[in-house]
Amino acid sequence: MVKVGIIGAGRIGKVHLQSICNYVRNATVKTVADPYMNEETEGFIRSFGVENVTKDYHEILNDPEIDAVLVCSSTDTHAPISIEAIAAGKHVFCEKPVDHDIEKIKQVMKALEGKKIKFQVGFNRRFDHNFEAIRAAVKEGRIGQPHIIKITSRDPEPPSADYVAHSGGMFLDMTIHDFDMARYLVGSDVEEVYVQSAVLVDPAIGEAGDVDTAIITLKMANGALCVIDNSRRAAYGYDQRAEVFGSEGMIATANDANSTAVLSNAQGVTGEKPLYFFLERYMQSFAKEMACFIDAVEQDAETPVDVIDGLQAVRIGVAAKKSVDEKRPVALSEID
Amino acid sequence: MVKVGIIGAGRIGKVHLQSICNYVRNATVKTVADPYMNEETEGFIRSFGVENVTKDYHEILNDPEIDAVLVCSSTDTHAPISIEAIAAGKHVFCEKPVDHDIEKIKQVMKALEGKKIKFQVGFNRRFDHNFEAIRAAVKEGRIGQPHIIKITSRDPEPPSADYVAHSGGMFLDMTIHDFDMARYLVGSDVEEVYVQSAVLVDPAIGEAGDVDTAIITLKMANGALCVIDNSRRAAYGYDQRAEVFGSEGMIATANDANSTAVLSNAQGVTGEKPLYFFLERYMQSFAKEMACFIDAVEQDAETPVDVIDGLQAVRIGVAAKKSVDEKRPVALSEID
Amino acid sequence: MVKVGIIGAGRIGKVHLQSICNYVRNATVKTVADPYMNEETEGFIRSFGVENVTKDYHEILNDPEIDAVLVCSSTDTHAPISIEAIAAGKHVFCEKPVDHDIEKIKQVMKALEGKKIKFQVGFNRRFDHNFEAIRAAVKEGRIGQPHIIKITSRDPEPPSADYVAHSGGMFLDMTIHDFDMARYLVGSDVEEVYVQSAVLVDPAIGEAGDVDTAIITLKMANGALCVIDNSRRAAYGYDQRAEVFGSEGMIATANDANSTAVLSNAQGVTGEKPLYFFLERYMQSFAKEMACFIDAVEQDAETPVDVIDGLQAVRIGVAAKKSVDEKRPVALSEID
Amino acid sequence: MVKVGIIGAGRIGKVHLQSICNYVRNATVKTVADPYMNEETEGFIRSFGVENVTKDYHEILNDPEIDAVLVCSSTDTHAPISIEAIAAGKHVFCEKPVDHDIEKIKQVMKALEGKKIKFQVGFNRRFDHNFEAIRAAVKEGRIGQPHIIKITSRDPEPPSADYVAHSGGMFLDMTIHDFDMARYLVGSDVEEVYVQSAVLVDPAIGEAGDVDTAIITLKMANGALCVIDNSRRAAYGYDQRAEVFGSEGMIATANDANSTAVLSNAQGVTGEKPLYFFLERYMQSFAKEMACFIDAVEQDAETPVDVIDGLQAVRIGVAAKKSVDEKRPVALSEID
């Protein structure tokens, strides 16, 4: 039985709490820490039978009974808390992105060196049933050599301009999942990035120095070409699709909906919209990533998403930004 | 917090145990009873934090702390145990069918008379996301007046001839869900039943006096016509679809699959098979029916599937059998 | 080059005229006859380069240059004109139904006896790309032994009560295509018919002594069960689907639409309605049946739909009517 | 009745011949010319009732009875023959591309200046039912302002290296259709082109100086971003899809198949592959473009695809080539 402490009881911290309590049979959550802990949150946490609720995450790091820590705090604290946790000998599950700053990710990597610490980054989409099915087909050679990867990733609603200002920009906040997905789907690194982008959804996003619409072309190390298209707002909800085309065929996924029901009437033949909210769409993937992390801890196995994966996605994001600024393709080797 | 006792720790008893522990926040399972309780089962039950595990279900009935009982024992004991539980003042969730014998169901109805006892029958498919979507569309008038109801229900594998011999026959064992579905989808009773059936899957089923393939036509009280098609074996897995056609349109559902992935290659364009096993296909519906039962108990509200629903489905099943025997349409009014 | 005369220049006669002129390279239409020939129709016919346009179909029967005749006149004249044409040594393509009266069809059969005359009945749906794909899969054994056949056939608009009065009833007018389809899809005859029907679309149809909604169960000679569902009015257009389920799998078709375009917006994910009108939906099948008829004539081969097919579909229709009248399953052997 | 002469009796010339003879009621083909005319081709042409068959296209240009000319000869002769035809006062339908050389297209434009000559370029895909449905939805504002355009265009088989050497390269030979499609779907010009490409299908294509796989990003004048993905070989056949995403929704098309039949068995749920060959896939569009050209001639209306459309697609193709050579985004304004 793996004993877990959760640092950060915001939306994603709560998701992981639920996942462990409801789905993961070989772990329990002993302590949840959050500096802004309030009564409502505490009540929610306690309803899952969690013993300790605190404002100070050091209670977790100092608790010798706790094996593993979930870092679900604000992005700027991911790296320093991870480093503290590693120093305390805890296995770490760190939410994405590890940091916006490549240097800080490298410090985490350094902290991990020579340690028998498990470190997993929260790229939950790798554990989604649809994307897993693509990955499996590619891995089994069912599409032959991959030639073209296409990822569509569109949010149902843009974030507030306020959020945008502190988000690190669309590429590090939103597209980062897609960068990781490109690497995951074909098991290859990215060599070059070109971005064509625009502000078409909300001028306030542009005023905050960001973009809201983009076509991103990646050249992969294995020779495949990848294209990601992003929008901060899809009127029909959360659009999350992918396709890998190769020498022997193509594997593609569609969106998930709440039901398969289709209404045929004088207006047309109408199915349900995609699941609207990322928590609906990806709930099962959050549970599965947690189960995989706990298994890696318990069985002393490799985590399925490691710190290098965390680093590479950020490097691609930084290259994407540079491509926008300099209006040219940017080699990943230009980014340290 | 509703305290629950589970009588019967077979496959379906375990499903309800998991549902309550993982999804239903306003209930706990205090005791599980099964005459064949063994170590493995006890270990499984205890891993959910259940206090009492016993071979004698009277421990549950005699426990004044327990509010509600789930009757998950063998079919022939559903009615007598339900009656005992009602006498003990427990709310009852009874697995389907309440009994093969209409007389015994009427005894349960009598036991309920004048009591403030909640009674729910385990027609879980009413809580399935796809069938709920049809029901909602029909109820909201989106297809106008219902004219034609079509239900496809095909199992992935036939039961053993042994099982068949004690199952009450395909209509009471398998089609009973579809009879309830017909009533549920359009909110109307059945008036007449005609069956055309055959033994096409396994001669042993015929030798056991049952059929394995059937087309069943129902005339509904609201004037709609319904057709159910059944097979005990679909090579591609569990086939569970429905369609309601009305004056303003049609609402139809497809099967659920594990993912939306589609492989295009030289052989064709291939998607995944339907979810194969009823527990995969209907897991979410089992959780939801349990949540609804607990809510009905806690809020003193009507249960969504009551003893009359349990009775009617069996009456239709008995009429179906009679239609096969007498090779003619049978009015439901002929069946008491 | 097969020389063709067309008797009857109504809607279906014009369809065949176009098919032969535009698609069938080994035939020409020499003469078109219609007692109600008017200027507009004549102009239309001449625009295809047809030499002779007449009111008297005997000009066709007496023309030694004409090899084959298309009987596209009113239903009550199909049999007598066919018999005249056979006597004149012409090959005959006869629109469906050959007659409502089984006796008259038998007279046609008698006229054909011992003659080297090709006779084809206009069950065009056998030549539809979708239904051909089902038939091919069944024939190739890709679904194993057929167990269940399902045919959905719903019209976009009900006929006028006037039309209904002279139509021979829904089973001989509309379902007759589906009866033929059942036989075609699995290559087997029908043994028993049971109908559950209703008047749900238009009371005037009921007043004219007909039904507008039906579920028809057929028992096939090969042991398979078949169900046809009919409605005289589908709000979303012409609904023409079929499914054959067997020991090794299922083959099913969906409706055709004008395009594959799907609109996703805040209201849902909406595709186009099925092609609305039977001429849109089945145009290609009309062309193909004509090409097959001409080929059979030219190559002295069997026609793909013969007079027995014409007879059997009518017998099933008559049995269906009897089933409604007598509220019981009717064996086909009861119908001569 | 428009009298037509066809110059070039290769594959595409024959397609147009058939289209006019079978579908276009207000035109006839009087003469077909081809320098390589042989008996077989002549027989084919004469079977459509064409009067004159010749090796010398001047017979067409000098025939005062002929109103319109279809230029279906080899690409290098499109421009000069068009210019001759214009000088002879003939309306011109010119196959794509007008020329690989922008200068020559400008000479055609000059020849047209001040003349009442109709000139249409053979971008047949604009007349495809699926792409027309997208265009209509965009035009009617059903997806709001267009933000992202996605075009997938993959051939079933690569051309021979020999063909590649004289094709003008993939962008002018194959992608040119997609460039026109991008402009057509949203009714906007292209401002900038960036290409990421590779040789993944056949090294011989690379040795011939061309690419066989590409991701092409376009910036449109209306602010939308477009991405085209191309491959010279899709194992599952001809892949022709498009999607336009906008402020209010998305409209997308799938491939056409020969039937809607889907086989469900132990291996999965398998539909048919896309129509394999461009003539199958686009036959209806070829007929429609011809009908539109003839209508424009007959009614003295604008042609739906004019010489500017022909010019722009080539300019984008030239920019695409430059982008590959110079590994940078290329503004269309750089290309004259």
UniProtKB/TrEMBL annotation, chains A, B, C, D:
Residue span, GFO/IDH/MocA-like oxidoreductase domain: 131-251
The organism's place on the tree of life at top rank = Bacteria
Q: Where is the Gfo/Idh/MocA-like oxidoreductase N-terminal domain?
A: 2-123
Q: What is its EC number?
A: 1.1.1.18
- What family is this? Belongs to the Gfo/Idh/MocA family.
- Organism per entry: Luoshenia tenuis
Q: InterPro entries recorded for this chain?
A: Gfo/Idh/MocA-like_OxRdtase_N, GFO_IDH_MocA-like_dom, Myo_inos_IolG, NAD(P)-bd_dom_sf
GO: which molecular function terms? Answer: inositol 2-dehydrogenase (NAD+) activity; nucleotide binding
Q: What is this protein called?
A: Inositol 2-dehydrogenase
The protein's matches in NCBIfam families, at most eight in alphabetical order, are given as: myo_inos_iolG (TIGR04380)
Keywords, comma-separated and alphabetical: Oxidoreductase
One Pfam family linked to the record:
GFO_IDH_MocA
